[in-house]
Amino acid sequence: MIHSDDPGGLTRRELLGWASASAGLAILSGGAQRPGAGGKPESTGEADQTARVEARAKEAGLAAFRSSRTEHFLCLGNAPDSYREAALEICEALAKVYTPHLRDRGFKVAMPPNRMMVVALKDPKSYEAFLGEQPGQAVGGHYDLDANRLVIFDFRPNVGVSKAEAERQNTFALVHETAHLLCFNTGLLATVHEPPKCVTEGLATYFEMWRPKTRAGVGAINRPRLLAIRQASQGDVSWIETSRLLVEDELFTDEKTQQLAYGQCWLLLHYLLQSPTWQPKLVEYLKTLANAPPQAGADRVKTAEEHLGSLARMDERIRKEARSLLRG
Known about the structure:
- The chain is of the alpha/beta class.
- The protein folds into two domains: 2-195, 3-Layer(aba) Sandwich (Glutaredoxin); 200-327, no CATH class.
- 48% of the residues lie in helices and 8% in strands.
- It contains twelve helices and six strands.
- The protein has helices at residues 12-15, 46-59, 81-103, 124-131, 163-185, 197-207, 223-234, 242-247, 258-274, 279-291, 298-308, 311-327; strands at 2-3, 66-69, 73-77, 116-121, 141-144, 149-153.
- The chain starts with a strand and ends with a helix.
């Protein structure tokens, strides 16, 4: 499960709405265990998806779900119609910029033949019931790889959260998680297994600053993630070598290293995706990950270095890039 969490380092108020995309809908990181983890995802047929979601809702004791559809997405849930429809507008808008952005960089991506599933719940209590366990306080939603569906909830009913803050959280979680949904359904990543969290979260954080109807396009500098790197460097958390970032998925769930891990994976993917020199190498690397069986440890490092070269030298480049961006 991939979750959306708040980046750490700043106060909660300062970072409200900036999920760290780490654990599941993280963040493809932390969070509840996915049923059948390691196996193939459930059927993505629209009728099957709908039946599974409705069965889970009934099991969780939630009222009958309503539905909304757009060209590429199907949304079910007990959230108000206005919230569901607004969420789908954002999903569609992101899908329309996602595909050309990646194609222009050499990636072969295409929208799936079936609509992608989004579950929209009316409040945190409904989300907890649907999930079957209590999520962390910072979790804003998740992408379930096995079920191949995105699950979000409306922050606005939260007591003590202003409407503006809640709407920022809604948008942040939705964009981050939709990025996960798109990456796994357009051929960029394989749905049969999860690659290193550094890759999945790096891609989601690369897209998470995008907003509809603004000038903040795909690939904009992710200031909250960059700030997390700065704060870590000023504290007691050491820079994480890229070889560790690719191998140790637990870095994305450990409270001490989580925000730095998210910040560095954003920086790594941003660097690779924005460089004409590195884009072709990243294309081949992701293609290999999509076609290879699950890897761990030395195999992950070997595969990365076969396409990206020495990870130690990559560290030098990324740290230099961090210093340059922090001076800007």
